[in-house]
Amino acid sequence: MNRTTLSLIAGTSALAAVTVFAVLDTPSASGADTARAAAQLPVERTALLCPAPSISDIADTAYTSFTPVTKGTGSAGRAELRAAPEPAGGTGGGAANSKDGKTGKDGKKAAQDAVLTPKEPGTPATGDTSGADEPALVGTADGRFAPGWTVQETTEVAAGTGRGLHGVNCTAPDTEFWFPGASTADNRTDYVHLTNPDDSAAVVDVELYGKNGAIKSAYGDGFTIPPHTSKPILLSTLTDERQSDVTVHVGVRSGRVGAAVQALDDKLGGDWLAASADPAGSLVLPGIPKDATDVRLIAFTPGGDDADLKVRLASPSGLITPAGNETLHVKSGMTTAADLGDVTRGEAGSLILTPADQAVPVVAALQVVRGKGGSQETAFIPATAPVGTRATSADNSGKGTTLSLTAPTGTATVKVTASAGSEGGTPATKTYTIRSGATQDVAAPVPSGLKGTYALTVEPVSGAPVYAARTLSATEGGIPGFTVQTLPDDRGTVAVPEAEEDVSVAQK
Length: 508
What we know:
Elements: H1 3-13, E1 39-42, E2 45-50, E3 59-66, E4 77-84, E5 114-116, E6 125-130, E7 136-143, E8 150-157, E9 164-169, E10 176-182, E11 188-195, E12 202-210, E13 213-214, E14 223-225, E15 230-234, E16 246-254, E17 258-265, E18 269-273, E19 283-288, E20 292-300, E21 307-315, E22 318-320, E23 327-330, E24 336-341, E25 349-355, E26 363-370, E27 377-382, E28 391-396, E29 401-407, E30 412-418, E31 424-426, E32 428-434, E33 438-442, E34 448-451, E35 454-463, E36 467-476, E37 479-486, E38 493-496
Antiparallel strand pairs: 1-38, 2-7, 3-6, 3-8, 4-5, 4-7, 8-9, 10-16, 11-15, 11-17, 12-13, 12-14, 12-16, 17-18, 19-25, 20-24, 20-26, 21-22, 21-23, 21-25, 26-27, 28-35, 29-33, 29-36, 30-32, 30-35, 31-34, 36-37
């Protein structure tokens, strides 16, 4: 019996089980295959994981959920976010408190009530919490709520270590993550948050790489994350070495997890550090704020070869080379950092890294500082994938949102749609042309009659690949709080091969 043909027929008939993280086998070149060109169909199930928001007692956190309206989804479906209990004997900074405070028989705090349940695609849903004991959240969406489902977690911390505005897109579970830009220095309190959405335990290794290579640790191997739970791990407890620039590698031996690094500085505020795009020879880091006072590039190559990179800034007028930082040499297995200063010089910018010679896979992130003196705040911009078919940014306000678009390799046309507001408003759409090699902070559309928050959906119309980032800003007590989220493809569709019925397979 032809195994490929059977797998294609089974894959098509079981479409209801396709998820945002599903993978279909590539058919072989045998003449018995009946697969036609793959169709792009809406995913039917999506999982998202939100880390525990803060260790501060004075933290205020908002969650915003949004699903773009997608053709071909039907009328059924739902989405919800629920608390992930902390394992019994957990480390704190992520204990899950249910509304009734009851504890289950397995020693975990119960997570009975949904924290957030969206009502309709096309309209944001919001929820909020406060304090240091708020849990990580495990989210699922199916049917019409699944394609492109996006959840933003935004936290304001008024004072103390890491004070400022923290933001993170809740992420799909995966098996490997790279975080250049973390730290074990005395002035930093960095946690890697690991959340397991599944019914079986996940086993995870956490590796640290500094300026001289792998950092020895007696505790980084084999963390067990029980089912439907989250664990924050303080990086400085994994090693006695104190280094300013560290790359964290999260590798999953069994199961899947969501991962994010919470980076908190004693003086420079803090933010979430999202995972870098997969290692690649060329990388794009979009959306550096035009008023950035200090930009630091952190890069790491996990392979066996050193990498030599050209460093260029995509400015509003095109690609330029930063004086004194024309190239970056990244030694194999070692974290390398370069201070770029106020590289944007008052203009919108994105950093473009390309091979100076042979292409060597690299991961990278930027640490960006705004403000001066005691009014400084920090955010991070990891290397990201292009927008692709569509990308979505939730939790936008009329005044505090900046949308940055860049097209490093050619001119591109992009459509941006502002959704209805969470409490009212009419959607609006604008189209922009981004010149080749340029970065543009666009005047993003705002829903007319806006009440509440809204989502921005970015869709390339024609031209070269586009990269995007959204900055949220909020000034509290003179501190210019801000956070930056990159906007890769929202993976709202999946390629499903078409297949013809072939009753002869039963006779083979």
